Structures are given as structure tokens and as C-alpha cells.
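Let's see one such:

===
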Amino acid sequence: MFAIIETGGKQYWIEQDKFYDFDKLAVKIGEKITFNRILLLQNGNELLLGKPLVQNVIIEATVLGHLQGPKVKIYKMRPKKKTRRTSGFRQKLTRVRIEKIKIKEN
């Protein structure tokens, strides 16, 4: 069973009992969160495709921690002017473990 969800303006392929790094979420470590913006759900041979979202599906997750991604170096140079500038950036991330993918019955 897997799902494709949208969070932070990005789409992620997720599976149950795995952890993922999303853009920073404003939740505390150890809290449970739910994702309800599900674009696609595949359960065995059944495929639910949202138009635009799948209804009656909830994904529960636990926040494991907050961390920073790898450093990205930014180098700017103006040729023939002898000006150079180097800086770096580290994206703030939230590590989340997917606990359950639940399908609600109507």
C-alpha cells in the first residue's frame, strides 16, 4: 500500500512504517499529525485517484525530530570585475514516521 501526498507545495510517495523528511512543519517532537491532502492511493489491486484529492483517506504520522538538510553552496562571480561572493544555505526539515494509512468507510 502506498500513497502520494502533497505537503509544503511538494508531492511525496509514501509507504507505511517508513520515515520521510518534509519541509519544516510547525509541530513539536513526538506529536501525531494527519495528512489529508492525498492525491493517489494504491491498496492491493485497488487504485484511488483523486480529482483533485482522494476523499475518506487519512494518513497518520508521528514527528521524530527537526533537522537541517545538506549544505548548498552558492557562488556568485562577476567576470572581469574581481568580485566574488560565496554563501551557503541549509534547508530546515522535519522527520516524520508514517504510522497508518486508513480508509474510512462511508
